[in-house]
Amino acid sequence: MSALFPALRADSDRPALRFGTEALTYGELGASAAALGARIGDAGRVAVWATPTARTAVAVVAALLAGVPAVPLNPRTGERELAHILGDSTPGAVLAGADDVLPAGLAGVPRIDVETAMVHDSPVSAFSGGEPDDPESAALIVYTSGTTGPPKGVVLSHRAVAASLDALEDAWAWTEDDVLVHALPLFHVHGLVLGILGPLRRGGSVRHLGAFSTREVARELGAGGGTMLFGVPTMYHRIADALEDDPALVRALSEARLLVSGSAALPVHDHERITGATGRTVIERYGMTETLMNTSVPVGSRPRPGSVGLPLTGVELRLVEEDGTELGAYDGESVGEIQVRGPNLFSAYLNRPDATAAAFDGGWFRTGDMAVREPDGYVRIVGRKATDLIKSGGYKIGAGEIENALLDHPAVREAAVTGAPDPDLGERIVAWVVPTDAEKPPTAAELADHVAGLLAPHKRPRTVHFLRALPRNDMGKLLKKALPEALRD
Ligand code: MCA
Ligand code: AMP
Predict the structure, then answer these.
(1) Is the CB of 369 under 6 A from ligand 2?
(2) In this predicted structure, what is the pLDDT of residue 2?
(3) Domain locations in the chain?
(4) Per CATH, which fold does 387-488 belong to?
């Protein structure tokens, strides 16, 4: 039996996954993953071309069963970011779909087509799933942006994945009867760990929509069979916009057991619009690639828009002031940095002992998120320590990596990147550019394509302002706060 996924049994015809028309039972998934796992045992690490398909789920489960760390790759990753991830994680193989066209950057990595191992309708008789004996073994390496430099590989152990998913079982009364609906990308924690491994650990099922649309949500949730919906705030914002004219969507949300939002703050206005139209509250949970899940509003709690709830089972949480003093107050006012400790934490940043050491304060992980605690212990996030981190559409993006990419464009002499409030994306990436030739500035679309091609499409600037010079102080330090004023000048 598999320790991580007890429901994976050769003879099980319970539905496990459905992506569009492709569905796999636990028996089929177990057999497929075991067959693929047998082929990757000595790969060291495997990269997974993480398209929103059943193949990605099979590939990741295979790697977990084989004890081979999986590195999920965003299929839209640009050439520079891909080269960094491959150079850093050195995968021995890439698992992809037979039809996937892989970029030149992956040419040197042996390719295994997941389909060649997939078993439909004829589960093998002897499925003997199992994970490495040591729960500290690496399960996944997920890349995440920081304020500066290229993304870091977050090493997540089998222990962390199991602990975090089990804590959510408690908070959400998540059972094998739940059918999760979502459209999240499968190369981040939210979509992959919570959205795929979560249902599989519970023995329930997941229906992935391929791409987000309110029409698909309406079809799958509620009467369509789905009991839970996971999404980032941008998705709930789009749902809130659509509810007024879409009775099917109202019905679907009203009938769901649980609506969960995370990856960024869901604005109170969107909470209220959804509750007003459906009578349902959206539950927020707070997590991070490095920590998996830390807090959640528990199921059955009274509505708490704006709060990320209580620490999950096993998670210790404290608020710390700038000078390192722990804040004891539960007054809804005193602001401190959230630090957490518990079995949900990552093991290390890959190849970055310096960054790993800097991330901890005597065993406590510094999240960089600023929060207050209400008298009843509920946590409310009020901001972020680093202004150079942008959350757009639920993706974390470092201003520095975009600035470096922009500076590599021949028509850019100087560049600064900031996040601007955006009703749909939460924050929108704004680039402030001094062109090499003021008479012939590049177009905004050209710069967006340039960043999308080097890094990833979600890192592209959505607004570009051209300036004669960037505002700097006497020491030459860039003054990002003065950028709007510099534009007016
Ligand atoms: C547009 N596109 C381009 C360009 N312009 N491609 C290349 N170059 C360009 N210049 C393409 C895009 O690739 C995309 O293609 C389409 O145009 C639309 O893109 P975009 O406008 O970016 O999409 P969107 O509508 O803004 O997306 C909104 C979204 C997305 C669906 C909400 O932001 C999303 O999926 N967010 C989820 C983020 C997430 O999972 N975060 C979890 C990390 P196409 O449509 O074909 O794709 S946080 C985490 O894991 C922690 C633990 C936590 O707490 O959860
Ligand atoms: P990532 O590093 O991409 O995993 O993003 C983690 C960050 O997302 C956290 O440090 C928070 O800033 C943010 N985040 C996640 N969930 C929430 C939430 N429910 N409310 C506010 N911010 C959140």
Answers:
(1) yes
(2) 87
(3) 15-373, 387-488
(4) GMP Synthetase; Chain A, domain 3 (3.30.300)
Q: Where are the alpha helices (DSSP H) in 41-78?
A: 54-66
**137-157 burial: b if 16+ Cβ within 10 Å, else e:** bbbbbbbbbbeeebbbbbbbb
Which residues lie across from 389 on neighbouring strands?
A: 398
Q: What is the pLDDT of residues 212-250, one digit of tens each?
A: 999 999 999 988 899 999 999 999 999 999 999 999 999
Sheet holding 138-144, edge to edge: 111-113, 93-96, 46-49, 70-73, 138-144, 152-157, 348-349
Average confidence (pLDDT) over 5-13:
89
- Ligand 2 lined by 267 (C-beta under 6 Å): no
Give me the half-sphere count of Cα atoms (radius 13 Å) on the Cβ side of residue 11: 2
Sequence letter at residue 254: S
Return the sign of the alpha-carbon dihedral for residues 40, 46, 47, 48: positive
CA distance 233 to 203: 27
Give me the amino acid identity at 308. V
Q: Which atom of ligand 1 is nearest to the CA of 232?
A: 37
CATH topology of domain 15-373: Rossmann fold (3.40.50)
Q: What are phi and psi of 215, to 5 degrees?
A: -65, -45
Q: Which ligand is nearest to the CA of 189?
A: 1
Equal fold, 15-373 vs 387-488:
no
Say what the pTM is. Answer: 0.97
Report helix, strand or coil for 316: strand
pLDDT over 70 at 412, yes or no: yes
The CA distance from 131 to 117, in Å, is 19
